[in-house]
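Run folding on both entries below.
>entry_1
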Amino acid sequence: MNILLYILMFLASVVVTLGGCALFTNAIEWLGKRLKVPEGAVGSIFAAIGTTLPETSIPVIAIFFGTGEERTEVGLGAILGAPFMLSTLVLPILAGLLIVYARLGKRGAAFTLDYREVRVDLQFFLVAYALAMACVFVSIPLIRYLVAGLLVALYGLYIRTKFAAEHDGEASLDPLFFARRAARPAYGLIGLQGTLGLLGLVGGAHLFVTAAKSLSVELNVSPLLLALLIAPLATELPEMSNSFLWLYQKKDTLAVGNVTGAMVFQGTFPVSVGLVGTNWNLGPMAMTTMGLALIAVGMSLVQLLWGGQWRPWLLGLSALLYVGFTLYLYGS
């Protein structure tokens, strides 16, 4: 009986997440249209920050308001887990889903987006994350504080760069759900719909985690496997849901920008929290996740610089880094 209940919770989490995703993406697109900002900025900044803020609160609360030694572990785990998941799993899944959609005849088999915007995202992330990784070998607190400030400034420069891009023109989009007959919906309705959608995304992710934990106990699944696969997937569920929906709608700039923009944010602001609030002494496993994230993003950037575009099957190979690391941890 309990297992049936947890399965129903899983299904409910999917419904809540998809509903929240539809509300949030629709509101974010209308916000971008009303503000007349480039489409790249809508996905990389508005959507990325909106979906990452709830999980970003975890390291802030854990590091500055938590108690005990575990606060540092929780905080650093949350900080380093997101870039690792986004680069080695979410982007490859996006590429795989593109292939699936193409096989089903729903769209073409190649990304249709401005790769210059993607290069900007990847380059900003590589610079920021490499600086953060270099600080592991620096024991002087002042230097870490200066780098933390530099990362925040770097994200400010990133925002300025994205907003300075050329406007893409009027993109076709569905009416705002909360004002279907309005040709120009009010900011208040856009904000209300976006907030409710974001709450739905977060609520669906939490329901997903609760069901997964309970089911793992019933089925006697390894807690390690749960920690490596279920919980990280749940934290990135909002980004994935938004991107998958946009990809299906052939809005690739928004779909990819939501992921790469989240990577830039996660590689700057939360990392600066870790640099200031901890001694930034990272163990081998934490260093490995940082290294694998840099390798995955580096491979994606090299593919762009070499061929000018992404080949979905080649982009999907980054998932081998996630799978290999997961199998290594599970076997150790």
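>entry_2
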Amino acid sequence: MEKFTVLEGVAAPLKIINVDTDMIIPKQYLKTIKRTGLGKGLFSEQRYNDDGSENPDFVLNKPSYRHARILVAGDNFGCGSSREHAPWALADFGIRCVISTSFGDIFYNNCFKNGILPIRVSQADLDKLFDDAERGANATLTVDLAKQEIRGPDGGTVRFEIDAFRKHCLINGLDDIGLTMEKSAAIASFETREKTARPWL
């Protein structure tokens, strides 16, 4: 998993509450188990018109936000079904951080397992970050995970809390497999002992 240390980039404002996982990645894109290629389906029902053309009014289709790396979103982002394709689609599009006042629990957990940092902030801080994001490509945000702060284009800072273990995993690029592989020597030693003690297994 790609390490998350300091992320600087354009933040796209998505002023919608209760964005569920079906809105993030509609069901027709769930036929694959690959983590790549899903970026094209991200918010597809909002990004594209019925004829397949782009909807120019949707934020990620606007020139300033086509390469956004951060999403500032309304309350209860990622609610609904448990599909892991939702963080896969965000990551494939290039978004590494989502900021909101609250998240759906399963989506929140899935983000950490896929290298995305979900940040909970107060409504007052979210309103400030919306203001920053609405300035477009010339107003980037910097998310510093080690310092647990978001720095705005005018020098303002928003602090955030995060579980220490999840922070460790993101900074070191450790998903569940990576955490297991850290104990590969102990696992190999156990397997060797078991082969001697229980050769019939």
